Amino acid sequence: MKGVKSDRNTAIRDIVLILAIALVGLCLLFFNGRKTTPGSSVVVEVDGKTVASYPLDTDGVFVLNGGTNTLEIKDGKARISDADCPNMQCVRQGWISRGGQSIVCLPNKLIVTVTSSDRSVDYIL
């Protein structure tokens, strides 16, 4: 009987630990989402080099990377609206508008990142 009681205590501790981890994870998701700041511009990098920067407050469509990608900026958000890569993951990533968000097109070596004028620190590790 002693072994059965020990197994129950272990199971209860496991459940408490799982619930505590889940609660901490939910809190981090909630508070992390609130700390993001609206972006002011997007920076375009091709093969690790910055090639362009566009303000998010001006709507437009821009052909990037020699015509392999098309960047659309509208209503303070940006997205890759067209690409010639085989899997089109960059197009499927959708709209970005918050500081630090990125769209990546690996086949075309393209990264579009939203930058913010807010220089505050979100976390210190």
Can you characterise this structure?
The protein has 125 residues and is of the alpha+beta class. It has 2 domains: 1-35; 41-115, mini-chromosome maintenance (MCM) complex, domain 2 (Sandwich). Helices cover 30% and strands 33% of the residues. It contains 2 helices and 7 strands; from the N terminus they run αβββββαββ. The strands form 2 sheets. A 4-stranded antiparallel sheet has the order 2-1-7-6, with no helix packed on it. The longest helix has 34 residues, at 2-35. The radius of gyration is 22 Å and the shape is elongated.
- How does CATH name the architecture of the largest domain? Sandwich
- SS strand fraction: 25-35%
Give the helix tally: 2
Point out poorly predicted stretches.
Answer: none
- CATH fold naming of the largest domain: mini-chromosome maintenance (MCM) complex, domain 2
- Span between termini: 47 Å
| Rg for CA atoms | 22 Å
Class of the largest domain in CATH?
A: Mainly Beta
Summary, kept brief:
With 125 residues, the chain is an alpha+beta fold. It has two helices and seven strands. A four-stranded antiparallel beta sheet has the order 2-1-7-6, with no helix packed on it. Strands 3-4-5 form a three-stranded antiparallel beta sheet.
Characteristics:
125 residues; alpha+beta; mini-chromosome maintenance (MCM) complex, domain 2; 2 domains; four-stranded antiparallel sheet; three-stranded antiparallel sheet; elongated
